[in-house]
Design a protein that fits this description.
The structure holds two protein chains of two kinds. Chain A is α+β, with helices and mostly antiparallel strands. Chain A contains 13 helices and 25 strands.
Chain lengths: ~500, ~350
């Protein structure tokens, strides 16, 4: 009932799924998937007008809480709110069970791969992966071969990007095992969701995401070097290392430090003496054992990487190599999420674990292979081309929507440096109903779950669901106009 | 705690205190200048001078504009080139808060952030144009709300101690500066109290938000001697110079205990010297020798303590001793330069004027 007496318009009254695409909510127009029916009914009841109000409430909640990412050009202190869509994305308990096992399997294999590559290199000598491809990766750090991180853990935090194919199957699109970001939005989105739509939220049995900071802290502390055993008067001390407030993910760095109850340090707050790392405090220097670093390898230590750089902590790598400090994630992980290595991850799983991959992945053309390159050059207008070390949606070609000149530009790039790129067919990412100013419309989504590994591996039930807010867009990155949704992983009982 | 973080705590509260003080100053002066006794051409000059903004104001606005309420208030409230305008102070307060969000409570951040969103909104502009007294009152309320939330949500330990240290040092500084300007207008040493002078002392008290407290203390008309004594060293008035320095001393002792110092820092010694001096000074001597000299000493002491704080706690030199709490003697031999090149605090220090 509404005050004006005008009948309330059900939220999904005008919603039409995108043809040829898996819709997260609807099997066919007006026909919700069986496990979505309850949610669709609850949202329908809210009605369009009320929903719009709640959406606006959510927007102002983010602004007031200062949940922002930084951009350089904005005059409002250089911060922008990451657009949030109030329609949740839902994953059933059965679906999640498979995803969870598949992610743990994949991250375990990637970690074993790193241990191997920076050790005996069995996978290369047995010719499972081409040695030239791996050792030629820009993320591979030959100088660190033989340096084993504490507990053999390289990937303490992984963000694995998943998409859903038109048949509804989850596929891995990308691995992020260097400094994946976005988990703070998962937690913040949930908070705002509970405030904006409590009546809908409580109808479903949604698993909590609030444990993440606690598990991350435990993961970091249990990964401390064993070489310097802590004593009662000097407990293990961990910090989050940030590039500073101008970094686009600064909010997240500060958020995680706050929620873990540990300190947020700039590189200039740290120094190395006798291959040990110290924090400059008001009480004098204090030793640090674990650094959750959100700075790229190349800017961590000018002594090791770039003598010309003023950024970073001089001597940090020597402290790491001496086993006096844990870096999370470890150094040199870029070789594992190199996009040219990605096609071989299923082989890694078979090689190290003697298992079949639980989650599939997207067919990929390895352009350092001649026949793949030729095929790609002939079909650029159908393919997506990505730089092997790129991220954030930068430096990629969307063949089907690209202009002639963009295609010509990439053709030249590919011919000049085929090792620098991969090509994939454009996958019809699944779409979810999304509030677009005045109505619901299908928009494409992906999902980045987060996987933590210390003494064991743990997957956060949920993840950052990113949504391409532009009509017909396939690019979900926040730097490219993407937004996010709260992801509801349902408990087993529903 | 991290030295850089302590520095941000300190400055966050200094900027909040500055915003509050500037809002009070502007609101009070708007009323005072309505009185006929005022020199019309110069109505805003003392306020601009007190903030150390004379040169910039004359360059950006014009030396013939001191009489113009709108020009002066715009400069004090909104001007982004004025480092001590209300807008600038709140901007820098928020920037400092943003850099230590994991240290301050979430409620503190949200209060400050919401205040900033409001200040930069059309609603704030409307209120500024439509009801200026209410606008300035709101600024003071926002600052007070922030302070109250801080004390009720932060752990009462080192970070909050650095914050409050920022507040009390800023207050001591403001009170001294306010006294100095009025004192100049009264023409130095005082002998007889004319009605005009009495009125001036009342407005002096108003500028320092001290009128009510003064009357409770004295139940008598303000004379120069009483007002000076009250503002300089009333033991309980929250803005008296002595009260602020005594609190600063207390806070610094707590900080030294928390950071396990074996010997008193230079910061503490400088404070103790000033506190001892204020306690034993005779007001008649102060007035005789010149109030201006006394107030200059207060302002200089604040600056000196801030310099020492930098080296003792907030921005230790790049290659510190490995022993925690190196003896003070060893520290004294370190660089005497007051403006460090690395941190943002040198930039901030400049805006003390």
């Amino acid at each position: 009932m509404t005050i004006s007496g005008v009948p309330k318009l059900p939220l999904f009254a005008d919603y039409r799924p995108l043809p040829g695409t898996y819709d997260e909510f609807f099997e066919a127009p007006g026909q919700p998937r069986s496990n979505m029916a309850q949610l669709v009914r609850a949202l329908d009841k809210v009605g369009q007008r009320e929903f719009q109000k709640r959406q606006e409430l959510a927007n102002s909640a983010f602004l007031n809480a200062g949940v922002t990412f930084s951009v350089y050009s904005d005059e409002r202190g250089g911060e922008r709110v990451f657009p949030f869509d109030l329609i949740p994305r839902v994953i059933t308990a059965e679906e999640w069970d498979r995803v969870e096992r598949g992610l743990a399997q994949r991250v375990t294999a990637l970690n074993l791969f790193l241990r191997d590559v920076y050790g005996p290199q069995k996978i290369l000598s047995e010719d499972i992966l081409p040695a030239r491809l791996v050792l030629g990766s820009s993320g591979y750090l030959e100088r660190l071969r033989g340096v084993a991180p504490p507990g053999g853990v390289y990937i303490h935090v992984a963000g694995i990007d998943l998409i859903r194919s038109p048949s509804g199957e989850f596929l891995v699109l990308e691995d992020n095992v260097r400094t994946p970001s976005g988990v703070s939005y998962v937690l913040e989105n949930r908070g705002v969701m509970k405030r904006a739509l409590p009546s809908v939220f409580k109808k479903l049995n949604v698993r909590s995401v609030d444990d993440y900071p606690t598990v991350l802290r435990d993961t970091l502390l249990e990964s401390a070097p064993s070489a310097s055993p802590p004593s009662p008067d000097s407990p293990v001390r961990a910090v989050v290392l940030t590039p500073g407030p101008f970094n686009s993910a600064y909010f997240e760095h500060s958020f995680l430090a706050g929620r873990m109850g540990c300190e947020l340090a700039y590189a200039s707050d740290l120094f190395v003496r006798d291959r040990k790392v110290y924090l400059k405090t008001t009480a004098g220097p204090q030793q640090i054992h674990v650094i959750y670093r959100r700075i790229d390898d190349a800017f961590l230590d000018p002594e090791f990487f770039r003598p010309d750089s003023l950024l970073g902590v001089a001597g940090l790598v020597s402290a790491y190599a001496a086993g006096n400090v844990t870096l999370a994630n470890a150094l040199g992980n870029g070789v594992a999420d190199d996009k040219a290595v990605y096609p071989y991850v299923p082989d890694m799983i078979r090689f190290y674990l003697s298992e079949e991959p639980i989650i599939g992945q997207v067919q990929t053309y390895n352009l350092s292979r001649k026949q793949d390159l030729e095929y790609a050059l002939g079909h650029l207008n159908e393919l997506v081309v990505k730089a092997v070390d790129g991220s954030g949606g930068y430096g990629m070609l969307m063949g089907p929507t690209a202009s002639e000149s963009e295609i010509a530009e990439f053709r030249a790039k590919l011919e000049e440096n085929p090792r620098g790129y991969i090509a994939q067919p454009r996958v019809e990412l699944s779409a979810a109903p999304t509030w677009c100013e005045t109505e619901l419309a299908p928009r494409r989504v992906d999902l980045r779950p987060f996987v933590l590994t210390g003494k064991k591996t743990w997957v956060l039930p949920g993840g950052l669901c990113r949504v391409a807010l532009e009509k017909n867009s396939y690019v979900v990155n926040s730097s490219q106009g993407g937004g996010s949704k709260d992801t509801w992983v349902l408990g087993a009982s529903t | 705690m991290i030295s850089r973080v302590a520095d941000s705590c300190f400055w966050l509260f200094r900027y909040m205190e500055r915003a509050e003080s500037c809002a009070r100053l502007a609101a009070t002066n708007r009323m005072l200048v309505l009185d006929a006794e005022h020199d019309r051409a110069e109505r805003w000059k003392p306020v601009i001078v007190v903030l150390g903004e004379q040169a910039r104001f004359e360059e950006l606005v014009g030396q013939e504009r001191y009489h113009d309420d709108d020009d002066a208030e715009e400069y004090l409230t909104w001007n982004q080139k004025n480092p001590v305008s209300i807008r600038s102070s709140l901007y820098w307060a928020r920037e400092n808060a943003r850099q230590i969000r994991e240290v301050i409570s979430r409620e503190m951040w949200e209060t400050l952030n919401t205040s900033w969103q409001w200040l930069t909104s059309k609603a704030a502009q409307r209120e500024y144009r439509g009801d200026r007294s209410q606008f300035y009152r709101r600024i003071r309320s926002l600052c007070a709300e922030f302070g109250g939330i801080s004390e009720s949500t932060m752990l009462h330990e080192e970070p909050l101690d650095f914050m409050l240290l920022g507040t009390v040092l800023e207050r001591a500084n403001q009170t001294a500066r306010l006294m100095d300007v009025k004192h100049h207008r009264l023409g130095g040493r005082e002998t007889l109290e004319t009605p005009w002078q009495s009125a001036q002392w009342v407005s002096q008290l108003k500028l320092c938000a001290a009128e009510e407290s003064f009357l409770k203390r004295h139940r008598a008309a303000p004379t120069g001697r009483r007002v000076v004594e009250f503002l300089l060293r009333d033991p309980s008035f929250p803005r008296s110079v002595l009260h602020c320095f005594e609190r600063a001393e207390l806070l610094l002792r707590r900080i030294e205990a928390a950071t396990a110092r074996v010997a008193a820092t230079d910061s503490l010694k400088a404070l103790q010297t000033m506190v001892a001096h204020l306690r034993q000074a005779k007001i008649s001597d102060v007035l005789h020798a010149g109030l201006h000299e006394e107030l200059t000493r207060v302002v200089d002491t604040t600056a000196l303590v801030c310099d020492h704080l930098q080296r003792d706690f907030l921005n230790p030199i790049d290659a510190p001793e490995l022993e925690p709490a190196a003896p003070a003697a060893a520290r004294q031999s370190q660089s005497q330069s007051t403006s460090s090149s690395s941190s943002s605090s040198s930039e901030q220090s400049q805006s003390q004027g």
